[in-house]
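Bug report (template v2)

What were you trying to do?
Predict the complex of my protein with protoporphyrin IX containing FE.

What happened?
Run completed; filing so the output is reviewed.

Input:
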Amino acid sequence: MQLERASLETQGTADSGSVRAWDLPTRLFHWTLVTLIVMAYVSRHWGDAGLVWHKWNGYAILVLVVWRLLWGFVGSSTSRFASFFYGPLTAVRYGLDFVLGRPRHFLGHNPLGGSVVLVMLAMLGVIGALGLFAYDDHDALTGGPLSSRVSEAMVAFATKWHLFMFDLLLWVIGLHILANILYRVWKRENLVQAMITGRKEARPYEDEHDANLASPWLALAASWRPAASSCEERRGGAAAGGDRHTRALPVAVVLLFLRLRSVSKWR
Ligand code: HEM
Ligand code: HEM
């Protein structure tokens, strides 16, 4: 399978002083996620007495997280988990280098930032899944579609952890935003602009010099047509065996969703 050459050209090096860092789907994912999380909080506290908006908002976040999981295997080089899955020691060492003012530059996520990204995605998945079992017995008197299918103890557990983990997530998000500010004011590196424009200043990055972008159309069809990464291409199409699995996942998600609809009363 080939990366979409045409798309590579359109998203390619428009000006020679910068290189490609983030593809359009990843950027859209990020800013949509931010909007939905803010709305999850705001809607819960203002004007969504029946939790109607909150629940659809929560499903949308779950869909985004599942999509990001797929994109982490078939997406552009900087979006792939393999490109920012580092060990804890590497992350700590990077953190020390950062604090001690030893500049190290990464085109994709740096080892510490990448770990925080993985933690945020995992937490969002868990919070969303717990929400399916949570129930609001003091205010809206409604709950997730699976709350009527499990024991009261389980509902209480899910509700408690749904709320608690969201509070924890707020701290992690705070760190994430603080790191971006530190990069801007201390290291003079504008990571936020890169997450908007998709481009970073050209320099000798440790991970790669220019991102290998997958087609944005692939993002829509991520389930059916996984792109080969540059390293897979180098390995001579070793991805072929993995296609079956990347196809099976979204089918499983759709089946699970239909199953949820049929078992729940959608209160
Ligand atoms: C990852 C996505 C989600 C986020 C970030 C999120 C976040 C939140 C927040 C901030 C609250 C209010 C906490 C408070 O009152 O201080 C809440 C409550 C609640 N959420 Fe979610 N939620 C998500 C997904 C879901 C889903 C998918 C459902 C169910 C379909 C759900 C069901 C509930 C319920 C029933 C409550 C009320 C619990 C209570 O106040 O006792 N949530 N959620
Ligand atoms: C609800 C709040 C937020 C959440 C949950 C969140 C989550 C994430 C996630 C999951 C990624 C990884 C993107 C990917 O690889 O798919 C990311 C990256 C990034 N986010 Fe956020 N984000 C939030 C708020 C913000 C805000 C407010 C800013 C700007 C100040 C920001 C700036 C960035 C930047 C610059 C990156 C790329 C970091 C890098 O270069 O390694 N984020 N964020």
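What did the reviewer find?
Strands lie at 18-20, 135-136, 142-143, 199-201. The chain is about 60% helix and 5% strand.
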